[in-house]
Specification:
heterodimer, A: about 325 residues, mainly alpha, two-stranded antiparallel ribbon, globular, B: mainly alpha, two-stranded antiparallel sheet, 10 helices
Chain lengths: ~325, ~260
């Protein structure tokens, strides 16, 4: 545990130092890479609550990521075109304000998580994997056919949304926002894990029968975890859309759901910092291998295979010498 | 809506359904016998299509292309089973999902590496092109009709294989109790390799056959894979008969729904 605590702090520190160093040496692209890593890490921290603590192998988390993205896309689209946003009987205006967008993204993703969770948590094992995958695909095909918001081409947002008091167009300031969001999500994960709820959830993953005999409902525990997990991933989606100033159905693709799981595996399942380390390594590999060869996904596949077959516990497990909790 | 259009669309749905069955049959066999969730099954579909397109391009023979597709997919399946999948039978579902996801990355990018990003085209041979007149004056492409026939024949063959042969008995016994049939002297790891290669070959055949209607490109397997998952969930995981019914149901719904619903 002590080793892991050290790893955690060093990781966070490195995450702050690298972009600051890039600022000093004037390499804005490195800051953008770090921002990308922070946002992917945020999405994976969200998934890690369902996957790592709850043992829920969701292959449909791209649905929440994409919902967050489209929440940003739709609101900002209406704001930049000065068109009203009609929601049934209500009509509102779009917005370019990040906090409002985030709140919308979180609520939309949490609601979707509640509905998907209510249905899919009735199943377990392979059926759960397949049903979450199917839900994710539903959102994907819906986004493709939704021509009002770009359909297959997606939506471009010309100017990054604003945050009161900050200039989000400056890379380091936008990184700061994402980094704070990441830290908050890590805090949520850390508090959850040691709370009575987290302990019960942990137990529900390992021996659901026992949890039931002490009078707790595993289904409800998992549902709450799934909704929290969805909400955090939704927030990450909104930030990701703001980073690229672009949303497209690709944010809903099941490859993205797979990649989120991959991030967690590279770092270590159920570890606090697993997703963060995983995302940093993923983005570094993407940049470095992607510069060497157009086919870097082959090597990602090989690395992933090796980790699954021989390196249980990911990087954190490797450094602490202990395999992570078994999912 | 004219009757002819409806019959045409029903035939299209059946054709799509039997191709889905070829995919779903392998997937459901692999899950039923080995308890493995195989996301990389769509890659065998792609491997079959590419092998067929490359062979047809080199030799000009469609039958040789089909043989190549079957052989390449079966070989890829056997190889993957022996190198990777074999280590995953006892692993958690998460590990199976991840390892087979990694295989998709390797297969897709590997294919892109060898064949490039542009789609290939597989020509329908002259003796199968053109329409045929069905009773009632309906003109329907011979090739699509051939696909339906092949699909039904494969389904019958699979039924015969699982219900009437010694191998089939071993496969069904393996679904029920793998320790017991290992104790009875069946080489279980050879049986698993065989079942996996068989499933992969069926997927490869489907890829090659469908490749002649659509274009042959990287990533063509994944949409079909997801529909095949739907099929085996509807049909009941592990059941070939269920997969057949489920595949026809999904094929017809997908095709007719696309035409008659908004």
């Amino acid at each position: 545990m002590i080793v892991e605590r050290w790893i955690n702090w060093v990781t966070l520190l490195a995450f702050m130092v690298v972009p600051l160093w890039a600022l000093v040496t004037d390499e804005p692209f490195t800051i953008t890479l770090a921002t990308r890593a922070a946002i992917l890490a945020l999405a994976a921290v969200g998934l890690n609550i369902a996957l790592g603590i709850g043992g829920l192998v969701s292959l449909g988390h791209a649905a929440f990521f994409g919902l967050g993205g489209y929440a940003m896309g739709i609101l900002a689209f209406h704001a930049q075109n000065y068109t009203p946003l009609e929601l049934g009987p209500f009509t509102t205006e779009g917005t370019k304000s990040m906090p409002v967008i985030w709140l919308t993204a979180i609520i939309a993703a949490a609601l979707a998580g509640l509905i998907i969770g209510l249905l899919s948590l009735r199943t377990a094992g392979v059926y759960f994997i397949m049903i979450t995958l199917a839900f994710g695909q539903m959102f994907f095909y819906f986004a493709i056919s939704w021509s009002a918001y770009g359909g297959e081409d997606g939506l471009s947002i010309y100017v990054r949304n604003g945050f009161p008091g900050l200039n989000t167009l400056v890379p380091i300031q936008f990184f700061g926002i994402c980094f704070v969001a990441l830290c908050l999500s890590l805090y949520v994960h850390w508090r959850l894990r040691s709370s009575p709820f987290g302990l019960a959830l942990n137990a529900a993953r390992q021996v659901p029968q026992r949890v039931e005999t002490v009078g707790l409902n595993p289904y409800r525990l998992k549902l709450v975890a799934f909704v929290i997990s969805a909400a955090i991933t939704g927030l990450a989606g909104a930030l990701f859309a703001d980073l690229n100033r672009f949303v497209s159905p690709a944010m809903f693709s099941w490859q993205l759901s797979g990649e989120l799981i991959v991030l967690i595996i590279i770092g270590g399942v159920g570890r606090l910092m697993g997703p963060v380390i995983g995302a940093a390594i993923f983005v570094a590999l993407e940049h470095w291998l992607g510069g060497l060869t157009d086919f870097w996904h082959i090597w990602l596949g090989v690395i992933l295979l090796l980790i699954v077959l021989f390196g249980r516990g990911g990087v954190v497990g490797l450094l602490t010498g202990k395999a992570g909790p078994h999912v | 809506m004219s009757t002819i259009l409806i019959i045409e669309q029903v035939l299209n749905g059946l054709q799509f359904g039997v191709m889905l069955f070829l995919m779903a049959a392998g997937l459901t066999l692999i899950f039923g016998v080995m308890g493995l969730i195989n996301l990389a099954h769509g890659s065998f579909y792609m491997v079959g299509a590419f092998a067929a397109a490359a062979t047809a391009g080199a030799t000009g023979s469609f039958l040789l292309a089909l043989v190549a597709a079957l052989a390449a997919a079966a070989l890829a399946g056997a190889l993957v089973e022996m190198v990777v999948i074999r280590r995953l039978y006892k692993a958690a579902h998460l590990d199976q999902v991840l390892a087979t996801f990694a295989l998709i990355l390797i297969f897709s990018e590997g294919t892109r590496w060898v064949f490039g990003s542009f789609p290939l085209f597989l020509e329908i041979p002259a003796w199968l092109s053109g329409p045929v007149a069905l009773p009632g004056g309906i003109l329907y492409p011979v090739y699509r009709l051939t696909l339906i026939v092949i699909g039904v024949l494969v389904a019958l063959g699979l039924w015969w294989l699982t219900a009437r042969t010694r191998i089939g008995v071993q496969i069904r016994a393996g679904e029920n109790d793998r320790e017991m049939i290992a104790a009875l002297g069946v080489d279980i790891s050879k049986l698993y390799t065989l079942v996996f290669a068989l499933g992969a070959a069926l997927a490869g055949l489907a890829g090659a056959l469908v490749g002649a209607i659509q274009s042959v490109q990287v990533g063509m397997g994944e949409p079909v894979l997801i529909l095949a998952f739907v099929v085996i969930v509807i049909g009941g995981i592990g059941s070939i008969k269920g997969a057949f019914v489920g595949a026809l149901l999904v094929g017809l719904t997908d095709t007719l729904g696309g035409i008659f619903l908004p």
